[in-house]
């Protein structure tokens, strides 16, 4: 039997009758809905993207482990665990998620009220607050037993493997779009030698493996509407062992860009050095002295390589026919790739300035 959304939500441990179910948010991966109940309590319902996350059991085990761990810390400091971390609402049979007969996997979270996840930086203060929140998130998980975490997406930030996937996509030319992307491909290939940098630094022990978020874009943090503070880091699907500079870099890629991720006029793209500095300040403060000197020195590299890697991923998806990231119009993935590469080029121009700003915080 194919369940509709109402029947799906009926399987979860929610007592109040459901008033409405509406698509929600602007994430690129999962199908997200806002559930309104008669009591006024809201929930987030998500169909997990199983082509991206192939093992929902392991995925939910990670999120359950991490959120339970964070809850203890939040309680110990007198915080509100219902707002400061994700809360999984189990099914009526006590499971972390629902698998329907046709194989779809659904989960429900408590809705974090009185807070907003922003798709663009409106004020430097918001960006600073997001930096603090992501830094603190990493600090809070510093002692988390990393070996218990499943790798929900293998080689998620292995740039060399991402580059290899691009080469495969070029060979296949599955969507017949190769000719439209020749400039972008040349840009990507010119920087192939940089794809190994992070993995080499990890291998040589110069960078430590930490428990990281791995998807630190601005709309994955909730900012309190009253206090303006970053209260909760969400979208915990990719919490895995990783590099702190990648968490830093992914935030810069998205939030310190003067244009939207899918801006069609790439001349609007640039790195805001003001926002870069604001984020360095917030992130280092949030990590509260945990980052090593090497990690701090490599923050600009994290920003550049995460932007480059994301550009490669958008380009690969464009060539494959838009099968990974959600798209809402033709060429959106190509536009996204172009903004990322324009941002990389601008970072290369501003490299010394980025390094000088970073030095102030070492
Ligand atoms: P995706 O992996 O597709 O990005 P997310 O988990 O980030 O999915 O959810 C998409 C959006 O839904 C978020 O950017 C945020 O706006 C909203 N959202 C997710 N979880 C919650 C929550 N618990 N409370 C309020 N809003 C949420
Ligand atoms: C995806 O899930 P979302 O929209 O927060 C992607 C990130 C990319 C980002 C680009 C699991 O993030 O890695 O950086 O899009 N998440 C996954 O906007 O692939
Ligand atoms: Mg998200």
Question: What is the secondary structure topology, with strand pairs?
Answer:
Blueprint: H1 5-10, E1 18-23, E2 31-37, E3 42-47, H2 56-76, H3 81-84, E4 88-89, E5 98-99, E6 105-110, E7 115-116, H4 124-140, H5 159-172, H6 182-190, H7 197-203, E8 210-212, E9 221-224, E10 230-233, E11 240-242, H8 244-255, H9 273-287, H10 293-297, H11 299-320, H12 332-349, H13 351-359
Helix pairs in contact: 4-8, 4-9, 5-11, 8-9, 8-11, 9-13, 11-12
The site of adenosine-5'-diphosphate (ADP) has 18 residues, from loops.
Provide keyphrases for this structure:
binds adenosine-5'-diphosphate; three-stranded antiparallel β-sheet; alpha+beta; single chain; binds 2-acetamido-2-deoxy-1-O-phosphono-alpha-D-glucopyranose; binds magnesium ion; 362 residues
- What ranges have pLDDT less than 50 throughout 5 or more consecutive residues? none
Strand-residue proportion: 5-15%
Radius of gyration: 20 Å
Helix content percent band: 40-55%
Bound molecules: adenosine-5'-diphosphate, 2-acetamido-2-deoxy-1-O-phosphono-alpha-D-glucopyranose, magnesium ion
Based on DSSP secondary structure assignment, what is the total number of beta strands?
11
Topology order in helix (H) and strand (E) letters = HEEEHHEEEEHHHHEEEEHHHHHH
Number of helices: 13
Shape: globular
Mean pLDDT: 97
Largest β sheet strand count, sense and barrel closure: 6 strands, antiparallel
- What is the first-to-last residue Cα distance? 59 Å
Structural class: alpha+beta
């Amino acid at each position: 039997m194919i369940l509709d959304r109402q029947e799906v939500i009926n399987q979860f441990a929610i007592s109040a009758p459901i008033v409405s179910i509406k698509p929600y948010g602007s994430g690129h991966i999962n199908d997200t809905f806002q559930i309104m109940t008669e009591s006024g309590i809201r929930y987030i319902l998500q169909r997990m993207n199983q082509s991206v996350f192939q093992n929902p059991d392991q995925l939910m085990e990670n999120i359950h482990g991490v959120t339970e761990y964070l809850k203890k810390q939040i309680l110990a400091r007198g915080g509100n665990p219902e707002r400061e971390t994700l809360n999984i609402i189990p099914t009526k049979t006590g499971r972390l998620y629902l698998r329907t007969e046709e194989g779809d996997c659904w989960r429900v979270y408590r809705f974090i009220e009185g807070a907003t996840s922003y798709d663009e930086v409106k004020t430097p203060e918001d960006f600073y607050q997001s930096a603090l929140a992501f830094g603190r998130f990493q600090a809070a998980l510093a002692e988390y037993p990393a070996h218990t975490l499943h790798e929900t997406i293998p080689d998620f930030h292995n740039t060399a493997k991402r580059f290899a996937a691009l080469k495969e996509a070029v060979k296949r030319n599955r969507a017949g779009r190769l000719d439209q992307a020749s400039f972008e491909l040349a840009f990507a290939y010119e920087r192939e030698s940089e794809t190994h940098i992070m993995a080499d630094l990890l291998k040589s022990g110069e960078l430590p493996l930490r428990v990281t978020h791995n998807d630190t874009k601005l709309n994955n943090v909730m900012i309190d509407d009253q206090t303006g503070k970053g209260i909760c880091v969400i979208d915990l699907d990719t919490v895995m062992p990783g590099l702190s500079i990648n968490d830093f870099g992914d935030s810069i890629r998205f939030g310190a860009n003067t244009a939207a991720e899918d801006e069609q006029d790439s001349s609007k793209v640039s790195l805001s050095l003001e926002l870069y500095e604001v984020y360095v300040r917030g992130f280092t403060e949030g990590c509260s002295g945990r980052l090593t000197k090497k990690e701090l020195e490599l923050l600009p590299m994290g920003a550049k390589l995460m932007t480059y890697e994301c550009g490669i991923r958008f380009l690969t998806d464009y060539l494959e026919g838009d099968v990974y990231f959600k798209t809402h119009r033709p060429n959106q993935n190509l536009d996204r790739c172009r903004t990322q590469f324009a941002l990389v080029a601008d970072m290369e121009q501003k490299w010394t300035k980025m390094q000088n700003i970073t030095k102030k915080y070492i």
